Amino acid sequence: MLKGVNRMVLEVNQPENKYFEKMIFFVRPEFSGLSDSKLREQAKHALSTAQRPVKSKRERNSERLRKILQTALAAGAGAGITAIIELMVR
């Protein structure tokens, strides 16, 4: 919740981050006189040095299981197609 919104705010849309679509920066009062380009440059620097969110163990395991299932399905589809072609050739 924001109270007494009399601060300068810089909004950056579509940063090069797959987790977030928009970032909002609250500019410190002593830097509110800087040019827009300088503030955006600093915001992009902050975004580029930010760490990605840490995934929980459950999320990592779910991702791993999904990759294993995708690989197994691809291998099964390949084997099925090969078997069908072998039957057609005979």
What is the H/E string? Answer: EEHH
Poorly predicted spans = none
Return the structural class: alpha+beta
Evaluate the radius of gyration.
25 Å
Percentage of residues assigned to helices: 40-55%
Euclidean distance between termini CA atoms: 72 Å
| Strand proportion | 5-15%
The number of strands is 2
Mean residue pLDDT? 85
Query: Which oligomerization state do the chains in this entry correspond to?
Result: single chain
The main sheet comes to:
2 strands, antiparallel
Shape: elongated
State the strand order across the main sheet.
1-2
Topology:
Blueprint: E1 8-13, E2 22-27, H1 36-49, H2 57-89
Antiparallel strand pairs: 1-2
Provide an overview of this structure.
By secondary structure, this protein is an alpha+beta fold. It contains two helices and two strands. It has a two-stranded antiparallel sheet with strand order 1-2. A hairpin with an 8-residue loop joins strand 1 and strand 2.
Quick summary of this structure?
By secondary structure, the chain is an alpha+beta fold. The chain contains 2 helices and 2 strands, in the order ββαα.
Q: Top keywords for this entry?
A:
single chain, 90 residues, alpha+beta
